[in-house]
Automatic annotation (TrEMBL):
Region ranges (Disordered): 304-354
Transmembrane portions of the chain: 273-295
Keywords in alphabetical order: Glycoprotein, Membrane, Transmembrane, Transmembrane helix
Gene3D superfamilies named among the record's database cross-references: Immunoglobulins, MHC class I-like antigen recognition-like
Short name of one Pfam family: MHC_I
Sequence ranges of Basic and acidic residues compositional bias: 307-328
Ig-like domain residues: 166-259
Name under which the protein is recorded: Ig-like domain-containing protein
InterPro entries, per the entry: Ig-like_dom (IPR007110), Ig-like_dom_sf (IPR036179), Ig-like_fold (IPR013783), Ig_C1-set (IPR003597), MHC_class-I_related (IPR050208), MHC_I-like_Ag-recog (IPR011161), MHC_I-like_Ag-recog_sf (IPR037055), MHC_I/II-like_Ag-recog (IPR011162)
Biological processes, Gene Ontology terms: immune response
One GO CC term on file: external side of plasma membrane
Length: 354
């Protein structure tokens, strides 16, 4: 698969770059800045590095005439597929502009299929410009591409030649979780994984996962089946099937005995482990109780006041005492004056005044 990207109006980025991949492994790369080809195989791809950039720039110019934007991004995906089991060969060629599908090649009729309104507007010009390149590229895609693909696979690394049998497992996290049928170690990245009941594929309560790569170059995938509403006595009617061309079917019966899980039954724990856990819980409980009692005593008992609190308290007490003395002094002075007045009144007859 060749993936090319041309752009205009994007600073600090190459105006063109391209990858070539075989089974999702990059074998060649180039861009308009470096003007060199990095290839894991040979230099036969040099043409696409030096001819496609001009072709992309030309297409971008007339595409921007129909869409007034400062930035334009044109993407192309083309390549071939070869089924080594059946010998079938397929080719594809697609274009997208600014993230939306633009044109797709109708291989059978050798015509362009417009994928949106903008593509309809430029279809005539696109067809005229692509007529000659299309006549030249289709034979290459149909003949040369599959032959190159066969050659690269036969001389490729170990992962591309890996033909080992994949392994299928039934997994479940908890008793209420769906049961996962998981297959790993298959190559190439194609195949079907599904659940059946009485030999018929089912879709209810089933959720399919994606095909994911493994570190060794093989692939894995999974499909979940929610069995919460399935009686245990009916489990024998269900199985999981992995199907791949040239490999046949790998069938795994839904059986509780073969389900793998990370749960551990209480009966599977060694007795000394259980004793250790119980002892640890008892010790933890004792520490919690002791801590609680200490906390209660600390919060309910007498506590020494802070020095700052004591100074403030003494200051308030001294102020209160001073105020008390002042009041007492005033009261005493008043009493003495009243007493003197009373004595003066009693001494009036003794002054000789009649």
């Amino acid at each position: 698969m060749l993936m090319g990207v041309g752009s205009s109006g994007l600073p600090n980025l190459p105006t063109f770059c391209a990858n070539i991949e075989i089974d999702e492994i990059r074998v060649a790369y180039c861009d308009s800045n470096r003007k060199t080809l990095n290839s894991a195989f040979d230099s036969s791809y040099s043409g696409f590095c030096f001819h496609l950039p001009d072709n992309f720039a030309h297409k971008l110019n007339y595409l921007k005439d129909f869409q007034y934007e400062a930035v334009g991004i044109l993407q192309m995906i083309t390549g071939c597929e070869w089924d080594d089991a059946t010998g079938d060969v397929g080719i594809f060629l697609k274009f997208a502009y600014n993230g939306e599908d633009l044109f797709e090649l109708d291989v059978k009729n050798l015509t362009w299929i417009a994928k949106n309104h903008q593509a309809v507007m430029v279809k005539d010009k696109w067809t005229n410009d692509e007529d000659t390149p299309l006549k030249n590229s289709v034979p290459l895609l149909k003949n040369v591409c599959p032959e190159d693909l066969k050659k690269y696979v036969s001389h490729g690394d170990h992962s591309q030649q890996k033909k080992g049998l994949p392994s299928v497992s039934l997994l479940q996290r908890t008793p209420s979780s769906p049961i996962r049928c998981h297959v790993t170690g298959f190559y190439p990245n194609s195949g079907q994984l599904y659940w059946r009941k009485n030999g018929e594929e089912i879709h209810e309560y089933v959720e399919h996962g994606e095909i994911l790569p493994n570190p060794d170059g093989t692939f894995q995938m999974s499909v979940d089946f929610n069995v919460s509403s399935i009686p245990l006595e009916d489990w024998g009617k269900y199985d999981c099937v992995f199907q791949q061309p040239g490999l046949g079917n790998i069938t795994t019966k839904l059986d509780k005995a073969v389900i793998r899980t990370n749960r551990v039954s209480p009966t599977d724990f060694p007795s000394h482990v259980i004793s250790g856990v119980v002892g640890g819980l008892v010790l933890l409980l004792a520490l919690c109780i002791s801590g609680f009692i200490f906390w209660k005593k600390k919060n309910n008992g007498f506590q020494p006041a802070n020095r700052s609190d004591k100074i403030e308290e003494n200051s308030e007490l001294q102020s209160f005492k001073d105020e008390t003395r002042t009041v007492d002094g005033d009261q005493t002075s008043s009493n003495e004056q009243n007493h003197e007045k009373a004595n003066g009144a009693e001494q009036i007859p003794e002054t000789g005044i009649n």
